[in-house]
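Hey all, quick one. A colleague (J.T.) asked me to put the adenosine-5'-triphosphate job into the tracker so the inputs and the structure tokens live in one place instead of scattered across chat threads. No bug as far as I know, just bookkeeping. Sequence used:
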Amino acid sequence: MLYRIIAETYLKIEGTTKRLEMTDYLVELLRNTPKDVIDKVVYLTQGKLYPDYVGIELGLAEKLAIKAISQASGIGEKKIVGMMQKHGDIGVVAEEALKNKRQMSLFSFESSQELTVEKVYENFEKIARAEGAGSQDRKIKLLVELLNSATPLEARYLLRTVVGKLRLGIADMTILDALAIAFGGSKDLRDEVERAYNIHPDLGYIAKMLAEKGPDGIREVRIELGIPIRAMLAERLPSLEEILEKMGGRAAFEYKYDGMRIQAHVGKEKTMLYSRRLENITSQFPDVIEAIGEAFRGEEGIFDGEAVPVDVNTGEMLPFQMVSHRRGRKYGIEKIMEEIPVVLFLFDVLYLNGEDMTSRPYPERRAALEKWIQQTDRVKFAHRIVSGDIEEIKKFFNRAIEDGCEGLVAKNIGEESIYRAGAREFLWIKYKRDYRAEMADTIDLVVVGAFAGKGRRKGTYGALLMAAYNPEKDRFETVCKLGSGFTDEQLANLPRMFEELRIEKKHPRVWSEIEADYWFVPKVVLEVIGAEITLSPTHTCARDIIEKGSGLAIRFPRFTGRWRDDKAPEEATTVKELVEMYRNQVKKVEK
Ligand code: ATP
């Protein structure tokens, strides 16, 4: 197929902003495209060579593109750079340069070989894959070869495509429209085309199935291991009451983890991971791959979940930014993995041992998940309750916040609760808390217990159990586990420091519902700063004062480095002060 046909279509598309007109031009192009190159034509029109998840991208450096234009046109590089400054568009620069060449040249352009789509694709692919020594020269040569048989108009689009800036403004949805019309005759086929796209988001492949087999081809599209499925998304409603009503009075409520969504494709030979935007993130999480491989007891599966960084010692979830450091990073992952391990919280299974699970209702999928995955330290099921009791749900929500989550995701448990790939509907409804407060002041807390260290902290304490003082009851009420902010030396010294204060059982003046590994006489006071104060069903500080059944906790606590030797434990921050701080914090946010 001649590249000219594509270039002429692009020119027409560029001339309109109307989606309908764009669709018409695309339909015409698709109808004029032979079956065997239709996938390539679709990718090129998206400015790509493959669907994004394959991870092979075109993006030739502008510097090299300029060299190629110079060589193909015989115009000096300096001059091309000047033209680039003037136009700001490498495509237009190439077009101008070739026009110039044609005017100067005696040889008839028409007699030279015409550029084909196959040739363009082949050279682009070589450019995208070239690496190592001499690759820059090879890339330039490959582009020059194309330019030598290109018309000025073709040069415009070749250059824009090869530097990764084609930008025709065609959304995937417009291509789906065009495919439905080109091969179904009307938009009637649109829903089916979209269904196929949602479970197999590769427009080139879908175009090919349609071109080769017609509407039946689209019905043959299946979920495949290694091809990401478009993520199901959640709607939102402002209150838990409304959510419960919308769900018909009863639903599953899952923790809404604040991490990174991961779709894991676990196979016999290899495992692939995809992000919410379907990027291939396999290389960023070797630990997740190993963990899910160990946890899965079947042959093949596709799982949906959220990866969350966890403090190895306190077992508490950490802010999401700690995971995001891994993104785009190829080196040093080993080290990060050790320091900030992630736990994968699974909430769905989309494919299992050869079977598409997406059309099964949620309760069945969850049961299958629980059957085929064995929970480990690093792979767990999303924590959840199935309930219709608003009080119970509210408590669960508070617990989710205290545990470091953003809120809850309610999930429909009816017959209709299929996995709707790519859709945002009321089968899932998210409920996030509507405030985010900051703790401005430091507080002074008393060490009442400790937990044995793990990983790098083996042999010392991993975290300390901290409490506030309640003068009315003369007791110490727990508010957090403290594991960050210590230097390695301080950590190593902790057991020795607390040796004298060690006691067999919880001290009678300590009120704790958490079982510590070691208990101390309340004596040592540390200065602590946290992100905020939250309601807590596990800590005893101010239990029942703000809300029945809840206490207060410090979220993301950190030792400031100050040992408050000058303070007696009874001079530590009081429960009452924390209640005040909590109320002020909430008030501040409501303002
Ligand atoms: P969205 O993903 O809905 O477009 P967003 O990117 O802003 O919006 P949120 O509004 O925070 O994300 O909520 C949806 C996200 O919550 C999901 O994409 C998923 O990553 C995450 N999530 C965490 N826990 C769960 C869970 N138990 N079930 C479903 N999603 C969950």
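Adding what we noticed when we looked at it: The chain has three domains: 48-162, 233-432, 443-590. The mean pLDDT is 91.
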